[in-house]
Amino acid sequence: MAGCAATPPAVTYDLNPVEPNLTARPPHGELAIAMPTAISVIDSPRIVVRTAAGLEYLKGVEWSGRLPALLQKKLIESFERSHRLAAVGGPSLAAKYTLVTDIRRFEVDVTRSVAVVEFYVQLVGAGGQIIATQDFIGEAPAPHDDGATVSAVLDAALAKVLRQIVIWAPPKL
């Protein structure tokens, strides 16, 4: 195939669950974690940056999977590590409550040099009634816009949001 230039593979980054280091207490409640929703630009494995021109993808880098699926996994792992629930899992878990998450922002705003993670979360009962809602925002300084820095600062902002959610949800169950 003469004339075809191979594009180098994207560098892949992952996110980490939070280690909440919370005060020990007996676990209670069961929580299913629904697949998070997001606008199409975020519902992708591509890493988003906000520039003066708007939302763009960072070239040559990506997440290890589609962002909503990756975040669902990190939410489940964070609750597991907190030991605050009797059971936590995906939507197939027959739980009395479901955590429904809308990813509002998951980006590095290069105009402000800050990573911003924003989730709007609802606790929904088995009958569909909304038990509680909360908007969670985490930020972290973003001194550079290279792939390694962007993934690290988004992970740091995510850790703040995950910790807040892990503390917020169990007392409401």
Could you describe the 3D structure shown?
The chain is α/β, with parallel strands linked by helices and 173 residues long. The chain has a single domain (25-172), classed as Rossmann fold, CATH 3.40.50.10610. Helices cover 22% and strands 38% of the residues. It is built from two helices and nine strands. It has helices spanning 67-82, 147-168, and strands at residues 11-13, 30-33, 37-38, 46-51, 54-63, 87-89, 97-109, 114-125, 130-141. Strands 1, 2, 3, 4, 5, 6, 7, 8 and 9 form a nine-stranded mixed beta sheet that branches. Strand 8 (114-125) and strand 9 (130-141) form a beta hairpin. The mean pLDDT is 93.
Short descriptors:
single chain; 173 residues; alpha/beta; Rossmann fold; 9-stranded mixed sheet; 2 helices; 9 strands; 22% helix; 38% strand; elongated
Sketch the major β-sheet: 9 strands, mixed
Total number of β-strand segments? 9
For the record, what CATH class applies?
Alpha Beta
State the CATH architecture: 3-Layer(aba) Sandwich
Beta-strand content estimate: 35-45%
Share of residues in helices: 10-25%
Overall shape: elongated
Count of helix runs: 2
Poorly predicted ranges:
none
How many distinct domains?
A: 1
Q: What would you call the structural class?
A: alpha/beta
CATH topology: Rossmann fold
State mean pLDDT (0 to 100 scale). 93
> What is the string of helix and strand elements?
EEEEEHEEEEH
